[in-house]
Amino acid sequence: MSNIHKTAIIEKGAIIGENVTIGAYTTIGSQVVIGKGTTVGSHTVIEGKTTIGENNQIFSHAALGTIPQDLKFAGEEVELIIGNNNKIREFTLFNPGTQGGGNITRIGDNNLFMGYTHVAHDVIVGNHCVFANVATLAGHVEIGDFVVVGGLTPVHQFCKIGSHAMIAGGSVLTQDIPPFCLAEGNRAVLRGLNLNGLRRRFENRADIDAIKKAYKQIFESGNPIVEVAKEILENSTNEQVIEFAQFIINTKRGIPFTRK
C-alpha cells in the first residue's frame, strides 16, 4: 500500500506502484509511471511521459519530465526513463528527449544526482555515477558507468564521458573524455588517469597496468592519437584497453590533451 499525502495531486492515468511514498503538494502527471518502493518528496513536479523505476529517492522540489529546454521542441511525444535505486536530490531538473535526439532521455541505476543538477534533453547516463551540486549536462550528452562529475561543472552538448572517468569540480567540459581518465580545468584537459577510481573498481592490477601503458602510448608518443589507438586495438586482447582505444577512435568532438 502506498503512502500519498492528502495534498498531493495525482492525475488520472498515472500508475503508482506498491509502497510508494508521495509527499505534500507534489504533482504527478497522467502519463507518469512510478515503480514500487520509490519515495517522492514534497513540492515535486513529475510530468510528461516519465517512467521511474523501483526504490528511487526523489527529494523535494525536483522537476522531472518537464518539456525540453530546446526551441525546436514542437510538442511531439517524448520520454524520460529513470532506472532503479537512484538518489535525486533537491531542485534537480531532468528533461525528456527531443525528436532530433531519439525522443528519450535515459538514466540508469544507482546514480546520485546532488542538488541543482540538470539533465537536459536526450542525455544518456549509465550506472553508479555521481553528479555533484550544480553539475549540468547539456543536450545529447552521453555518460558511461562509474563516472564522477564535480560540482559547478557544465558539460557541453554532444560530449561523451567514458566509464570510470572523473571530471574535477569547477571544470568546463567541451570535448570528449575517454574512459578511466581524469580531466580538470576551464577548458578541461586530461590530467592523467583516474587511478584511485581504477583501484577501487579493478582487483586485477594487470588491467590497471595495461590501461596505464595504453594511455602513455596514445598521449605521450607524439604520434596521431587515432592512429596509435587503432594499432593498440589490433594488438590488444585486454577488455579495458579495447574499450579505451575504441573510444579514442570514435570520438566526434576530440580529446582535450596537451602534448608533452
Keywords summarizing the entry:
260 residues, alpha/beta, UDP N-Acetylglucosamine Acyltransferase, domain 1, 8-stranded parallel β-sheet, 4 helices, 27 strands
Brief overview:
By secondary structure, the protein is an alpha/beta fold.
Structure description:
- The protein has 260 residues and is α/β, with parallel strands linked by helices.
- The chain folds into two domains: 3-140, UDP N-Acetylglucosamine Acyltransferase, domain 1; 198-250, no CATH class.
- 18% of the residues lie in helices and 26% in strands.
- It is built from four helices and 27 strands.
- An eleven-stranded mixed β-sheet has the order 1-4-7-10-13-16-19-22-25-26-27.
- Helix 2 runs antiparallel to helix 3 and helix 2 (205-220) packs parallel to helix 4.
- The chain is elongated.
- It starts with a strand and ends in a 10-residue tail after the last helix.
- The model has no long low-confidence stretch (mean pLDDT 97).
Secondary-structure map:
Elements: E1 3-4, E2 9-10, E3 15-16, E4 21-22, E5 27-28, E6 33-34, E7 39-40, E8 45-46, E9 49-52, E10 57-58, E11 63-64, E12 79-82, E13 87-88, E14 93-94, E15 104-107, E16 112-113, E17 118-119, E18 124-125, E19 130-131, E20 136-137, E21 142-143, E22 148-149, E23 154-155, E24 160-161, E25 166-167, E26 181-185, E27 188-193, H1 195-201, H2 205-220, H3 225-235, H4 239-250
Parallel strand pairs: 1-4, 2-5, 3-6, 4-7, 5-8, 6-9, 7-10, 8-11, 9-12, 10-13, 11-14, 12-15, 13-16, 14-17, 15-18, 16-19, 17-20, 18-21, 19-22, 20-23, 21-24, 22-25, 25-26
Antiparallel strand pairs: 26-27
Helix pairs in contact: 2-3, 2-4, 3-4
